Amino acid sequence: MRIVSLLPSATEIICSLGLEPYLVGVTHECDFPLTVQGLPVITQTRIPKGLASSEIDDIVRNQLETNSALYSLRMDILEELQPDLIVTQALCDVCAVSGDEVIQAARKLASKPQVVNLEPSSLEEVFDTIKLVGSAANAEHDTSIYLQSLQARVVAITKQSDLIAMSKRPKVAMLEWLDPLFNAGHWTPQLVNMAGGVECLGKIYQASHTINWQTLADCDADVICIALCGFDIERSKQDLIYLTEHSGWQSLTAVKNKQVYVVNGNAYFSRSGPRLVDSLELIAHLLHPQLFTLPSYIEPTINIFDA
């Protein structure tokens, strides 16, 4: 079998299921595991590198308003690869090649590949997509075993967090973008709640959206967690000025108590794949370090007041 992945989370799913030997093509954003980085890249982006966050947001909004694609397929490379299976998504217009373009491309290929479309909005649905990919690749047995291991890790967290009294659950503001401000959506509020917090900006299973400063201030979060979509910690630190230089910064409860953290948003929370379980373990440790140990395979958060 020859598999092509059209989004980073799908690549992570494929590799986690032991299917990496069959993976023949990935996107320009697929960077995990590191071993996929030498594979043929079959997508390209209209977003230039090195832009400020506001400039990226402007391009994305303009492309979406004009119904233009942010990403496109390298059809020449796809024709060389002739995959049997293409894994893509239709959940987020910002994250991958449009579904229509993928379908049209698949119809032109002599290999007549199966197209598997992933659209999870919760952790449970992410597990369903893992099962779907495993089934499409005829790897049901290994997928079942892998899912059991993920679910056991989730239970290890929720078994403890369910015992935490509401009065001991901190209010958490998860931020996905800083210029402009975006809350975090879909599975992220769910993960925070499962970890023993109360996410106070987003709504479970709903997409992220822009918010204003007053909304951030009014939620009166005990903890602010910055997990910028597609940005690692070092890149995220460059955008902190959009928070710290605001006139209302010093009045925020989380700032007064020095509870503002930065997470590697390229690895955690933003991708709808296996590392959402890592994200759950990470936020559980952040909120309740006395109950949850941070596993060695997870990159720690940084407290901006310690940086």
Structure description:
α5 packs antiparallel against α6 and α6 (140-161) runs parallel beside α12. The termini are far apart. The chain has helices spanning 8-16, 53-65, 75-81, 99-108, 123-136, 140-161, 188-194, 213-219, 233-237, 241-244, 253-256, 275-287, and strands spanning 3-5, 23-25, 43-45, 71-73, 85-89, 114-118, 171-178, 181-183, 198-199, 223-226, 260-262, 302-303. The chain is globular, with a radius of gyration of 20 Å. Helices cover 37% and strands 14% of the residues. The chain contains twelve helices and twelve strands.
Brief sketch in words of this structure:
With 307 residues, the protein is of the alpha/beta class. It contains 12 helices and 12 strands. 37% of the residues lie in helices and 14% in strands.
The termini sit apart by: 47 Å
CATH superfamily of the largest domain: Nitrogenase molybdenum iron protein domain
What is the CATH class designation of the largest domain?
Alpha Beta
Major sheet summary line: 6 strands, mixed
What's the helix count? 12
Keywords:
Rossmann fold, 2 domains, 307 residues, alpha/beta, 14% strand
List the helices and strands and how they pair.
Elements: E1 3-5, H1 8-16, E2 23-25, E3 43-45, H2 53-65, E4 71-73, H3 75-81, E5 85-89, H4 99-108, E6 114-118, H5 123-136, H6 140-161, E7 171-178, E8 181-183, H7 188-194, E9 198-199, H8 213-219, E10 223-226, H9 233-237, H10 241-244, H11 253-256, E11 260-262, H12 275-287, E12 302-303
Parallel strand pairs: 1-2, 1-5, 5-6, 7-9, 7-10, 10-11
Antiparallel strand pairs: 3-4, 7-8, 11-12
Helix pairs in contact: 5-6, 6-12
